[in-house]
Amino acid sequence: MARAKLYYIPGIVWHITQRCHNKDFLLKFSRDRKNWLYWLFQAKKRYGLHILNYAVTSNHIHLLVYDDGKRDVIPRSIQLTASRTAREYNQRKGRRGAFWEDHYHATAVETGDHLNWCMVYIDLNMVRAGVVKHPADWPFCGYNEIKSSPQRYKLIDTKKLMRLLHIDSQQRLKEFYKKWIESALISKGIKRESRWTESIAVGNKDFVEAIKTRLGIKANYREIKEANGTFVLQNQRNPYRSNFPTKMGHLKGTAGD
């Protein structure tokens, strides 16, 4: 299985997903989803994590972040958020054993339109699951934060997000994002797309080829495929789990951390 340290590339937007152990619904209670968000906020304060979007479901999380070149920010943030959420859940429930899968998965996402599409995909997660009809009805995703721009406990780095989306004001961001969501709902563009959660990179041809080149021999046997103008650097049959160097044991059996 590929190890995290093999795939670190700075200056990239990453879509990170992490599932509960055995896909169990360990985040089914709102208090645990709120707890994950609390520790994500702490990670932002402690390490300077650039959060672009997020969603917490009943058995997995989505996190969209920007890597500014500080090598340990993302893995330390995920380690803090995952380990504290697991520890507090297990203590409350008197539970032992792993809370999360061994590794998280990270996909490099090109800025601009592909970032836009990835954000919409994340926020429509619980719509796809049939739990809500609109992301505004799910308080554990970034949609409402982007729409309301809270002053306290703000997770999303709005300034960074606007720059990466090439939008010049928060008001325009709110307007555009609402239109993007509504367009996806009207067109039924809410189905699951494995490119966002299982590939190594998603974007235009130049971007994906550049990621493959930067990976060098580590990208051997990875194919680039195209569908409807979007290019994907595919994973090997064995899942590509993470892009960032960290002691992954800290996320394995997190009850003891």
Which superfamily, in CATH terms, is the homologous superfamily? Transposase IS200-like
CATH architecture heading:
2-Layer Sandwich
Taking the alpha carbons of the first and last residues, their distance comes to: 23 Å
The proportion of residues forming helix, as a percent range, comes to 25-40%
Total of helices? 9
CATH class: Alpha Beta
Strand content: 5-15%
Helix and strand run: EHEEHEHHHHHHEHEE
Poorly predicted ranges: 1-6, 237-257
List keywords for this structure.
Alpha-Beta Plaits, seven-stranded mixed beta sheet, 257 residues, alpha+beta, single chain, 9 helices
Describe this structure in words.
The structure is a single chain. This protein has 257 residues and is of the alpha+beta class. The protein has a single domain (7-256), classed as Transposase IS200-like (Alpha-Beta Plaits), CATH 3.30.70. It is 39% helix and 14% strand. The chain is built from 9 helices and 7 strands, in the order βαββαβααααααβαββ. Strands 2-3-1-4-5-7-6 form a 7-stranded mixed beta sheet, with helices on both faces. The longest helix has 21 residues, at 73-93. It starts with 12 loop residues before the first strand and ends in a 24-residue tail after the last strand.
Concise account of the structure shown:
The protein is of the alpha+beta class and 257 residues long. Helices cover 39% and strands 14% of the residues.
Q: Secondary structure elements and their pairing?
A:
Elements: E1 13-19, H1 30-47, E2 50-56, E3 60-66, H2 73-93, E4 105-109, H3 113-123, H4 125-128, H5 143-148, H6 158-165, H7 170-186, H8 195-198, E5 201-203, H9 205-215, E6 224-227, E7 230-233
Parallel strand pairs: 4-5
Antiparallel strand pairs: 1-3, 1-4, 2-3, 5-7, 6-7
Helix pairs in contact: 1-2, 3-7
